[in-house]
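Q: Hi! First time doing this. I have a protein sequence and I read that you can turn it into a structure. Is that right? Here it is:
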Amino acid sequence: TMNRTEIMNILPHRDDMLLVDDAQRLEDGSVVGHYTIRGDEFFLRGHFPGNPIVPGVILCEIIAQTACVLFEKEMQGALALYAGIDKARFRGLVRPGDVLTLKAKLLRAKLGLHVISGEAWVGDRLCASGEFSFMLTAKP
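A: Yes, that's right. Below is the predicted 3D structure, encoded as structure tokens:
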């Protein structure tokens, strides 16, 4: 299992934008990660006052960051950039105190485009899912 420090060796995200606490590549090649919603995240301050709910686009970002562990070797010297989000569905609210379990697996890769299937769960409740496309580019 990779901790936040080890994840920072793959991802360029820092401070408020690093949204993965740990991640592990499984024997089947998929990745499972976790992130605990603390309640002090920047995206909760205005979404919504008195009723904090994690925005769906942030759930997509958390899934995407977890998915980058799939490309651990390729990420050395590279930057993963979104190329698309398809079939995104949001099925349940995520609130402070919730522990997200993130799941990602590679669906296909061709000519530098990587498409993954990803999910965000709280306990046995699926909260978000979709297909996420990334291009790996050289770091500037």
